[in-house]
UniProtKB/TrEMBL annotation:
Record protein name field: Transcriptional regulator
Segment forming the signal sequence: none
Acetylation is among the record's keywords: no
Alphabetized UniProt keyword annotations: DNA-binding, Transcription, Transcription regulation
Every Sugar-binding domain range: 63-310
Similarity annotation: Belongs to the SorC transcriptional regulatory family.
Domain of life: Bacteria
InterPro entries to which the protein is assigned, alphabetical: NagB/RpiA_transferase-like, SorC_transcr_regulators, Sugar-bd_dom_put, WH-like_DNA-bd_sf
């Protein structure tokens, strides 16, 4: 490491730093102006940062927790993590969904291009996301699973809202998520509208999906199943679900519902180049960890209450 700058050299370094960082001069231009070598200009710029002559301040958007985001990104090996700080007074289920939905809308607007095929799951946080979405590239929008949830919060309504924002063609699935048996699923899959949507599953390049928690229970799909079936799956150790893919705590995928499901399966999910997991609240921390252990997700959008728990796991 070079010795500390003398007072005279520090003044020169400050002058060079202003020309470089404020005025936008290149190192070659500054060297020519001051009769110095380009190497010396570069060295003085480095020392001006090291000795505090130049100080950088990174301004992050309000509510974005960059420290927690980077910690979780490194811990779980994800491409990106977006942690939204939700103030204590707003930390209700509805408040968390709105905040995380707003963050997810921003991420999706940035990620999606006109050449993408956008896959959409369902969930209350995704419904909140659709209300916050003000712009998105014109692209194909595909419903990744049949309907579950309330009239206003199902995947059919989500696909409609998102395609309206971007103006792209929508491919809905007018079928239930889980049907009675495999034969019914196979029959429904041959219907023209259903077949058109399902044919695009392998072409999905960006997808936004919610994470449902089974332990503790916080899942629309879980609530939609008959009690006896729900109890049996819980006894088998289901921790989470994405669409209708059931996942145990250790990340093992349970195939019990796959032959009756009108949704993308685990192989399709794992093959999507950009899979955005969207979930908030402490109750879903274990579910999110299980989903990541299953090899799902390139991006996670969540809130600080869940992120703090994930950091401790």
């Amino acid at each position: 490491m070079p010795p500390p700058l003398t007072p005279g050299a520090a003044i020169l370094a400050a002058t060079i730093a202003r020309r470089f960082y404020v005025d936008g001069g290149t190192k070659s231009e500054i060297a020519d102006e001051m009769g110095l070598s380009r190497f010396k200009v570069a060295r003085l710029l480095e020392q001006s940062v090291r000795e505090g002559i130049v100080r950088f301040e990174i301004a992050t958007p309000n509510s974005f927790n960059s420290e927690l985001s980077e910690t979780l990104r490194k811990r779980f090996g994800l491409r990106r993590v977006i942690v939204i700080d939700v103030p204590d007074e707003e930390r209700t289920p509805a408040g968390i969904r709105q905040a995380v939905g707003r963050g997810a809308a921003a991420v999706l607007s940035d990620l999606v291009t006109e050449t993408d095929v956008l896959g959409i799951g369902w969930g209350r946080t995704l419904s909140a996301m659709s209300l916050e979405l003000t712009e998105i590239a014109r692209c194909l929008v595909v419903q990744m699973g049949g309907m579950v949830g309330s009239i206003t919060e199902n995947s059919l309504e989500l696909v409609r809202k998102i395609s309206e924002v971007g103006g792209g063609q929508a491919y809905p699935l007018f079928v239930p998520l889980i049907v009675q048996n495999a034969q019914t699923a196979q029959s429904l899959a041959t219907q023209p509208g259903v077949a058109a949507a399902m044919k695009l599953f392998d072409s999905i390049t960006v997808a936004a999906v919610a994470v449902g928690s089974w332990d503790p229970p916080d899942s629309q799909m879980m609530a939609s199943l008959p009690v006896h079936e729900r109890d049996e799956l819980t006894r088998k150790g289901v921790a989470a679900e994405v669409l209708s893919t059931l996942i145990l705590h250790d990340g093992t995928v349970l195939p019990d519902l796959q032959d009756r499901s009108m949704a993308t399966g685990i192989d399709v999910l794992r093959g999507i180049p950009e899979l955005v997991l969207i979930a908030g609240g402490q109750s879903k921390a274990e579910a999110v960890r299980a989903v990541i252990r299953a090899g799902l997700g390139t991006t996670l959008v969540t809130d600080n209450s869940m992120a703090e728990l994930l950091r401790q796991m």
